[in-house]
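Obj: model holo form, ligand = nicotinamide-adenine-dinucleotide.
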Amino acid sequence: MKLAIIEGDGIGKEVIPAAIEVLDSLSLDVEKVYLELGYGKWEKTGSAIDQEDIYILKGCDCILFGAVTTPPDPDYKSVLLTIRKELDMYANVRPIHHLPSIKGIHERIDFNFIIVRENTEGLYSGIEDIGSDISTTTRVVTRKGSKRIADYACKLANSRKNNLTIVHKSNVIKSDKLFLDICRQTAIDAGVVHRDELVDSCAYNMIRSPWNYDVIVTTNLFGDILSDMSGALVGSLGLLPSANIGDRYAFFEPVHGSAPDIAGKGIANPIATILSLKMLLEWHGALAEAAIVEEAVEAALNMGVCTPDLGGKNTTSEVGNLIARYIKTRIG
Ligand code: NAD
Ligand code: IPM
Ligand code: MN
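Output (holo structure tokens):
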């Protein structure tokens, strides 16, 4: 596998090395291609990502990404949005479930749902008109964009509990009516049991009764917000992995950002990134290796090895190192 590795900024530079130690412990045949992208690159060159980077990324099988900081420049073109759009990775898949020994906000731990977030349009269209009195952003919902994310979510629902929730705000935002109609019709055609919820009440219900959800499909910004919110359900944003999937490319990253408030302290939780690596291995077909990574993460948590966001005393590298050593012992 030819793997592009982007540490990015802030804690991206801490969590990615921990995940790479875990990857190395698996002894897989991986060609690593490191790219420097993000705020650091922007400070040096005036560009956070350029066409040459996109070309290199397109030559790799998949990408492991840490996090980037948004530079203070109104003309700044987001690295993440550029990669997602250029490589047409339209499904942002964010699994949310309890992890052993970690307390979230509920005693009940029997929740396990996946947010499938449309990743290329909605309020992230990039069509903006920024003025001093009026600024507008065009929210784009297309049949093609809605259909392919609906297909992805229905396929996933069929492989799980056959329970889809379509999350929208079509009572006010009329562009969501198209999204809702297409998701409903796709679910009917695929034989998927479905319901829909307005995003505001969904946020309430999801925090209150997360065990009532299986697969959630929603537009770009709603999926962004609901996924960070779900970090509280599992106990830390530092535990949530994600996959950006397209027909040809895929890239894997923690849900969290570059966390400037804790960057450089060695206390960032690397588990979101290590579980993103697990999703990468699954996508690549290395199912046994993915299962061992998950087992090793659970073993570390069961041993109480964790970072301060989870109430632990360990550093980022200690957590990564223990998980890597567990894997080496396990595979001999
Ligand atoms: P953030 O996700 O970086 O941090 C939010 C809070 O969660 C902070 O208190 C942080 O300390 C904590 N946190 C996040 N990850 C953690 C981890 N692994 N371990 C322990 N605690 C963790 O969000 P923010 O502060 O709003 O954004 C900071 C920067 O990151 C911004 O420039 C933003 O644009 C960018 N960002 C990038 C990505 C990405 O690259 N994927 C995602 C979100 C935000
Ligand atoms: C995420 C992030 C990004 C998003 C930002 C940094 C562009 O918050 O991956 O969730 O909004 O998609
Ligand atoms: Mn986000």
